Amino acid sequence: MTTREPSKAAASGSPVGATPHVIVRKDGSELRLAAPPEARGTLLVGRLYPNGSFVSIRKGDVDEEKTASANVATAVPKKRRDAKPPNKGTSIFSNRSGLGEVVLTRPASEAARELEKASGTAKPEADRPAEKDGRPGRDEAPLTVEPHRDRNGNGEEFWRQRAGEVNRGLEVAEGNVARAKKRVEDLQSDNAAVAGQPAWAYQIAQAKEQLAIAEERLEVARKRREELAEEARKADAFPGWLR
Fold first, then answer.
1. Which domain holds residue 85?
2. Helices (DSSP H) in 63-139: which residue ranges?
3. How many structural domains does the chain have?
């Protein structure tokens, strides 16, 4: 997984959702996003909550069942005209199954403990994290941001090294063409006393031949650059790694 610098909108203080979208990974760690992520190929892309930094994570690393469960309690339900306000001390959760809203008659913390006991996953009170601000604590793994890698497991360093070799070859080829053109132009601008002489004719023929060879090598260098860009695209490598 990788993060990028916040966009101009995020940096200038664009509003971020009051409730984060939680991504639960298979290793148990959580990632909080400002909104549900967007699927792009094998990646999920979104913005971190609350600073707005761009982040991506592989779909295969996400525990979809736990992620869905984590976001049931954080979704904000829509108000219904015929709905009555809940009694004091109750919590309303959005039911994503499409069966409507679920209204609890007890505080959410009590309901969560009851569900844990019923499922056999409840922790002994001694092992339960201390409460903060009157709310039960949560076991949260530290947020780790993994660098993005392509489909073959190669990272930014691998692609920058390859791009550096190709780009240097392209620069050399462009320089050779420029020098060969200059040589031909200089010979063609010689005065009439020199132009047309056997030695001059031989030199300009050689210069034009060198120019043709330099232009062919430039085309090869450009083709290598295009092929590398296409290879990187298919491997899901970031385009910026080739610059």
1. 2-127
2. 64-72, 108-119
3. 2
12 pLDDT tier (thresholds 50, 70, 90): very low
Q: What is the pLDDT of residue 163?
A: 92
- Is residue 76 within 8 A of residue 19, CB to CB? The reply is yes
Specify whether 123 is located in the same domain as 160: no
Which letter does DSSP use for residue 78 in this model?
P
Instruction: Say if 147 falls within a structural domain.
Output: no
Q: pLDDT band for position 202 (50/70/90)?
A: confident
pTM check: above 0.70: no
207, 215 Cβ separation under 8 angstroms = no
With CA atoms as reference, report the closest residue to 208 among 228, 175, 182, 189. Answer: 182
Specify whether 103 is located in the same domain as 30: yes
pLDDT at 146: 82
Least Cα distance to 232 among 146, 166, 147 occurs for: 166
Cβ neighbours for 58, distance < 8 A, ≥ 6 positions apart = 1, 42, 43, 44
Same structural domain, 41 and 119: yes
- β-bridge partners, 132: 135
Kindly state the helix (H) or strand (E) to which residue 228 belongs, with its residue range: helix 198-234
